[in-house]
Amino acid sequence: MYRAGQEEINEVSEVLRSKKWFSRSPSDGHLREAIRFEDEWAEMVGTDYALLMCGGGTAGLTCAMAGLGIGPGDEVIVPAYTWMATATSVLSAGAIPVLAEVDETLALDPADFERKITPNVKAVLPVHMLGRAADLEPILAIAREHDIKVIEDSCQMDGGSYHGRRTGSWGDAGVFSFNWFKIISAGGEGGCLVTSDRTLYERAVIFHDSGSAFRPQAGELTEPIFVAQQYRTDEVSAAIARVQLQRLEGILADLRRNARGLEQRLTDGGLTIAPNNDIEGDCGICVALRFESEQQTRRFAEAAGVSGYCGLDHGKHVFTEWTPLQEKRVMHHPAMNPFHFEQNKGLRMQYDASVCPKTLDWLGRTFFLATGPDLTDAQLDEIASKCIDGIQALVG
Ligand SMILES: *Cc1c(COP(=O)(O)O)cnc(C)c1O
């Protein structure tokens, strides 16, 4: 969350004063914040439907799995560099995540995705890490050829785009996060699923509100109601999300101006920027610097003393840090652990460092330099000069 102010306070006050806080009630006098947000978000992204929910992007990803009917016996390809929730959402559906390498752009390597395809692979989850798009065109082409569904994890890319179209609108479904660490926030937590597939949408609606049989809008659904989870959003969160959406284009414009300005200064100073699948659609959250080796990255980091981190230090975004997966600890009861399911016998369940060595190599050779929408030119100059001094210390 980069910006918030009086507008959020005003909207929340209005909702609170209305005393109509339930997001799914179409009754008179209701402000319909959640329903309006969904219309606005779907229009911005370019899909027919959006479903706002609590439970975050993690819930959104799980709803997408449910919407596609992914379950036991299925494998889902997940890049080895992403927030752990991308992989855990697959397990929540009873399926098994299979790791694939990221390439030099730090997003899913289309070639490794293709190599990992077996008849058990039912879906792929390209992730747009740090506001940088995965290479969706080759990924979609490969997926279509093998009848594999595509769920875009756009949790770190609220409002970004790829080849002129918003991320989230390319795959069968897309998922955004509005937790506090993301570009915009729905009051600290929140997630949104988008799709243009009516069946997927209905099944996601049912999954996110297993009591929906008792609500009026359930009558519009043609898919049969089943029992699942309760991830309904509330009007206060939705009101905040609507104001945040109005801020989004301004935040992105400022982030992009600063990131591109910083990159220009750094390339002029002899630093190497990691390739990006679509620099115009990139959100500008960070600048990714590329080095020859992990040792060089670390020496640079020490010498430059700027705000940022080596990719390997990105905590639970790096697959080697996914301890519960490595130890196969899932769910509260052993019989509900997908790693024990009969249908999952023989599927690939390996998550140690040997599975994706190239990912570790690229992460070790990357320094993510922090940017921000409100950095001044003088601050950008200062960051750039520290980096240029840092690289000279390396060479010298
Ligand atoms: C934040 C994030 C999610 C979902 O996180 P929530 O906290 O559940 O909103 C999923 N994938 C990625 C890549 C993320 O960064």
Describe the structure.
A hairpin with a 2-residue loop joins strand 6 (161-162) and strand 7 (165-166). The protein contains 12 helices and 12 strands. It is 38% helix and 13% strand. The protein is an alpha/beta fold. Helix 2 (33-45) runs parallel beside helix 8 and helix 3 crosses helix 4. The radius of gyration is 21 Å and the shape is globular. Pyridoxal-5'-phosphate binds next to helix 3 and helix 4.
Largest sheet, strands/sense/barrel = 7 strands, mixed
Structural class: alpha/beta
Strand count: 12
Strand content: 5-15%
Percentage of residues assigned to helices: 25-40%
**Adjacency order of strands in the biggest sheet:** 1-9-8-5-4-2-3
Compute the separation of the termini in Å: 39 Å
- Count of runs of 4 or more consecutive helical residues: 12
Radius of gyration: 21 Å
List cofactors, ions and other ligands.
pyridoxal-5'-phosphate
Broad shape: globular
Mean pLDDT: 95
